[in-house]
Design brief:
Blueprint: E1 7-12, H1 14-19, E2 20-30, H2 34-41, E3 45-46, E4 51-55, E5 58-62, E6 65-66, E7 83-86, H3 89-99, E8 104-114, E9 117-127, H4 130-151
Antiparallel strand pairs: 1-8, 2-7, 2-9, 3-6, 4-5, 5-7, 8-9
Subcellular location: Cytoplasm
Protein name: SsrA-binding protein
Pfam family, one: SmpB
Length: 152
């Protein structure tokens, strides 16, 4: 249909889903430089160790590594600079209240293209305990064993 935008996932933060329990997800735009967009499209972005914070009514993304392209030359960007996330004011106010709760944080989950726009799925998350992680691993292994047995 006309007007539908395709969604192409560029980077997926799989580690976040293992280490955190995701309570809510939000879709946010990113304020990027031109060289950063080119580098992201080339697959040079990394969401590991990235997190977001709310500072003076703005949501900022820290530690997202976007390696510059070699062709950027003098126009190369700082790979670890702080980037602003573009959310609606109502969403920011809602997140501000939720993040102030004990143990909740904002974690980037996916970086994707929606049409020509680079967007980020942001998750409101609570850290998992070690026994929760072990439980997830056990469930995954039993599921894998069952699938193997079914194939035989």
């Amino acid at each position: 249909m006309a007007g539908e935008k395709t969604r192409k996932i560029l980077v997926d933060n799989r580690k976040a889903r293992f280490e955190y329990e995701i309570l809510e997800t939000y879709s946010a735009g990113l304020a990027l430089l031109g060289t950063e967009v080119k580098a992201i499209r080339a697959g040079r972005a990394n969401l590991n160790d990235a997190f977001a914070r709310i500072h003076h009514g703005e949501v900022l993304l820290y530690n997202m590594n976007i390696s510059p392209l070699q062709t950027a030359g003098a126009f190369a960007h700082d790979p670890l600079r702080t980037r602003k996330l573009l959310l609606k004011r109502r969403e920011i106010h809602k997140l501000t209240g939720r993040v102030e709760e004990k143990g909740l944080t904002l974690i980037p989950l996916k970086l994707y293209l929606e049409g020509s726009w680079v967007k980020l799925d942001l998750g409101l998350a609570r850290g998992k305990k070690l026994y929760d992680k072990r439980e997830d691993i056990k469930k995954r292994e039993t599921k894998r064993d069952i699938e193997r047995a079914m194939r035989r």
